[in-house]
Amino acid sequence: MSAMVDHVIAQIVRLYVRLLACQARLAAQTDSEALHDLRTTVRRLRSLLRPLRGLPGVDQLEAAASQVGDLTTPYRDKEVLAAHLLAYQQAEAAMKRIAEMEGVFVAVAASAELSRLLAVLDAFPMFLRAAQRQWLLRGLRRRVEKRLAKQWKQLDEALRDPAHDRHRLRLLIKRVRYAAETYPQLDRSPARITRCLKQAQGALGDWHDHLQWLLKAEQEVDLVPCVARWQASMEQAEQRSDQVLDKLLAACAKQ
Questions:
Q1: 125 plus 148 within the same structural domain
Q2: What is the rounded CA–CA span in Å between residue 136 and residue 113?
Q3: Can you give the residue range of the structural domain that contains 238?
Q4: Are 109 and 37 in contact (CB under 8 A)?
Q5: How far apart are CA 50 and CA 84, in angstroms?
């Protein structure tokens, strides 16, 4: 038990330091990857916490992480779209969205949501140690193993569903992949499955981006010139994702 508690606390400290670094980068506006790195770090934190639900302080920490995710999602979506538009010579539409991002990084760095997350995260190891002293963390390793197995089971069932929902599959794959990286001592996935998970996440992410852009184009007229290309690219991403998902299912079946 103590080894698993030590692992969780070490991960919490590491993620806390990374969040502080992201906050500083956002405040200083030093690079374009700061917002992405912040969101990735929050996602990894949520992967760490998911198997720990029900333990002292976890619900509060999960809620704080979710609020940062909700705050930053529209900004990151706009950032990604602007970069895509620039790459495809839609400079006017791109610059409009870049202008709309003015001051966003500084605002996120100073936001109440991020401050709250950092404060709760800073105190969380103390909650865990107190729970450990009170024997509330008995069976923690089994708890985590059971949660990870459940996530794999949900993914396997979704992969086998002929009418699978690509959006749900994308989320399930991200959960399984990040959980495996967060709890490597419990991950027994062979390298071929790890590769398939990464490929499937990429293909489904590409599909999801194009789907969201097409929905935006229904409301934002300056995106209309991109619709035909986006529709074709989304269909290609669908085909790629189906191929990779078939590979993933076959790899899982060999386990």
A1: no
A2: 29
A3: 140-255
A4: no
A5: 33
- Number of independent structural domains in the chain: 2
Cα 82 to Cα 249: distance, rounded to the nearest angstrom: 35
Distance from first CA to last CA of the chain, Å, rounded? 28
- pLDDT tens-digit series, residues 86-145: 999 999 999 999 999 999 999 999 999 999 999 999 999 998 999 899 888 888 999 999
- Of the two residues 30 and 40, the one the predictor is more confident about is 40
Question: CA 5 to CA 107: how far, in whole Å?
Answer: 35
Cα distance between residue 131 and residue 175, in whole Å: 26
Same-domain check for residues 18 and 1: yes
Nearest-angstrom CA–CA distance, 36 and 39 = 5
Same domain, 101 and 167: no
For residue 11, the 8-state DSSP code is: H
Per residue in 33-86, pLDDT tens?
999 999 999 999 999 999 998 888 899 999 999 999 999 999 999 999 999 999
186: which DSSP letter? G
d(CA 118, CA 112): 10
pLDDT of residue 229: 95
**In this structure, are 1 and 127 located in the same domain?**
yes
| CATH code, 56 | 1.20.120
Q: Where are the alpha helices (DSSP H) in 55-190?
A: 58-87, 91-100, 104-109, 112-133, 140-160, 166-182
Residues 91 and 152 in one domain: no
Q: d(Cα 122, Cα 16) in Å, to the nearest integer? A: 7
